Protein 1
Amino acid sequence: MPTLPALKQFVSSTGVRIYRISCDVLPLLSGRVYLLLGIETPTLIDTGSGSGICTSQIFQGLEEVRARFGEAFSWGDIGRVVLTHAHIDHFGGLPEIVRRTGAEVAVHALDRRAVEAYDERAARSNFAFDRFLRQAGVPGDRRREILAEFGYVKGRIESVAVDRELIDGEDAGPFRVIHTPGHSPGHVCLAVGDILLAGDHILARTVSQLWPESVAAYTGLGHYLDSLKRIQRCGPFRLAMGGHEPVIHDLAHRLEEIRAAHQRRLERLLEILSGAPEPLCVDQLSERMYSRQRGYPALLALTDVGARVEYLEQLGRIGIADIEHLAEQACPVFRYCPA
């Protein structure tokens, strides 16, 4: 695992002291959680995955805030945990952190059920994802392998009661809530003065992972692009800090880079379909876009292509070629061609 970035302090235009704490959230993936001080209720933004040493790294970071920066603070002072979204690398550590701090929990309504009824959400998500893979044309052996990498396993995370729902546009003490669906239904960014805590909506190097709307409502490329526009309208921001990767110093430029990357991938998909001698399913498109992948990379490639195919179909740029036969099958494979 690469060396984690050191604890660092940032101060917003409103005087809030923001401490960035790094942790290992998944194998080969580091994450960032943020402690907000200089406010009435010390607040932790996200909780890591709860896997391996992730939670202990967070508590070590909280202790370091006091030791290095002279803050009259201990982790028991945390009175509120705010989740940017309910993906495991951002809320898996929540049960242990709530047990040790007694903090209240806040999340957007569209991600609340994943926190409060994890096993139910796991069952529903696995069912929806399996249906997506079948319609994508993924054969049975690979489908079982990819489902195993999906990560929604019954009992993996202990459900936790949510105390407060975050509402788009509200001023919740030190920050303003901006609902940014796309990567997750209830994803929010938090505007702390001139600093944006961006969760996974905007990352410095990576184009945020897309999920098809057939797997989860309020995801998909259309919602994601609309959310990018919302962030642009809410700015300007001096800095943006995501749940992974370095600080973004020029957010406007990064937004343009992300939009351009999505446009290039859409054009590439249309090019592949236009040049194909016959209609293609999502699995075939994924192989042509990203080569044949296995395990977790295959999951990411398929959901990325699936979300883009849905978006192009919504725009009327492509269509399902075998539409007349869909009613004859319980779970047909969708094959696409240019409209």
Protein 2
Amino acid sequence: MTRSAIVLGAGMVGVSCALALQKRGFAVTLIDRREPGRETSYGNAGVLARSSIVPLNNPGLFAKLTSYLGNRHPALNLNWKRALTRPGWLLRFLWEARPSQAAARVAALESLTSSTVERHRVLMAEAGVPHRLRETGTLKLWRTEAGHAAAQAEHDFLAAHGIASQVLDRQGISGVEPALNPIFPAGLLCLENASVDSPGAVTQAYAELFVQRGGRIEQAQVESLTRIEAGWRVQAGAGVFQAQNVVVALGPWSMDLLARLGIDAKLDVERGYHRHLQAEAGARLSRPVYDVDAAYFMAPMEQGYRITSGVDLSHRDAPDNHRQIDQATASAREAFPLAPFSGETWRGARPTLPDSLPMIGAVPRHPGLWLAFGHQHIGFSTGPITGEIVAALVCREAPPVDPTPFAPGRYIA
């Protein structure tokens, strides 16, 4: 009997789950309301972040709270009305940042990021898009002299975890990125990170590989998910699909579907924005750069230089708030010769759980229902390893890393 699975969500995580299950002989149907890679997986900075091993709600968060609360800092926009609709979630997020949890969270994230570049390198070769991979690292930049100590501390922390980086002074920064204006006295070159020139196109290429190998993609809105004797039934648009296993990888929309089953996964949403600007004649960057003090990424993309914003904690579907992306655009133009912005502003959403770890694994008391969401800012990086974890658990194989820290049971009874 052919084993079957339906994967809901065609972002990087969902496509990766579909490929991993397909590799193990499953007949897989991938369903999303949009084409693959057009939501959260489209709008990120394209970084394959080997170095992203510290959760956002780490103990250092508490020292930053006072600067965040007035909504003046570019890193955060907090909609208080939205936050107070779920005060328990916000308090749990802060509680999870306590120092006693830090080491375990770092270890969990490191287990996901350690093979990021290698896994994407293999998939890009198989999908015929190796030219989209840049193995030039990423560059963090500080605007004040205090950045020297911060860069050195991060270098030492990464070195303790076997991750190579290089501390740079103003001259060193000019050596690796000569087109940057000399406004940054300190930097850290994260040597083991990589990046791509179009995360949406890479996700689309992986989806096309899935189809070439016999997979099926349906573009339709998921309306319902129902347990049946043989497994699960999904109604999507006018179609009805059945399979023994269902993987929910709908990112920030996962909570809408699970709520209909009476499941509260403790999921919330961060919003973010990006814009594409063109460089002035002759100026170029070789890698994504992150301006720590101004809280934006500037990443060379196929469409130009992508400027990303900080986190907007408003309701997922609320109207845009361009305060942060306007600030980021102005700051980026201070750092690099960019033409005036004249295009459109993109807005997306990231799925977030209180402990800043994704939810990967089986749902208690719902046989055949699997979850793969909540990756915050590293879903594009860690999609392939997530797919392998899910597929191994479905097949009762030993997963490539310990899945315990990501188990849905930590929030779902």
